[in-house]
Every structure is written in structure tokens, then in C-alpha cells.
Write a structure and sequence with these properties.
Elements: H1 6-22, H2 27-68
Length: about 70
């Protein structure tokens, strides 16, 4: 899979969804597109989960520092 940022992954996912909805591809190509979409969704979920964890850590750290003041 290509290297994506979250923004480019979301754009590509939208393109894939539009292509699949259009019905312009045969079954084999549709399956390949769907597979790519599943991989992108997994990447997005991991990226968002990691960002959420980082935000939680930073928030806890900031709250801990405020208690010491």
C-alpha cells in the first residue's frame, strides 16, 4: 500500500467509494478496489487511535503539571 497521510487516505477512500458506487468496473477490479479500501480504513483507524492516545497522554500530563503548581 502507498504511504498515506490521513487526509490523502480519506480522499482516496472517497474515490474508491465513488468508483464502486458507479458500477463502472468489473467484479475483479471492484474486489481489488474494495480490498484497497479495507486497508485504508484500517490505516485510518490506527492513525486516529494513535492520535487519540497521544492526546490523552498529553492531557494527563498537562493536568498533572497543573496540580503541582
Amino acid at each position: 500500500m502507498e504511504m498515506y497521510t490521513l487526509d490523502t487516505a480519506m480522499i482516496r477512500l472517497k474515490e474508491i467509494a465513488e468508483s464502486l458506487e458507479s458500477g463502472e468496473y468489473d467484479l475483479e477490479m471492484s474486489i481489488k478496489l474494495y480490498e484497497e479500501g479495507v486497508k485504508i480504513v484500517s490505516f485510518c483507524n490506527k492513525t486516529l487511535s494513535s492520535a487519540k492516545q497521544k492526546i490523552s497522554e498529553l492531557t494527563e500530563e498537562a493536568l498533572g503539571e497543573n496540580e503541582n503548581e
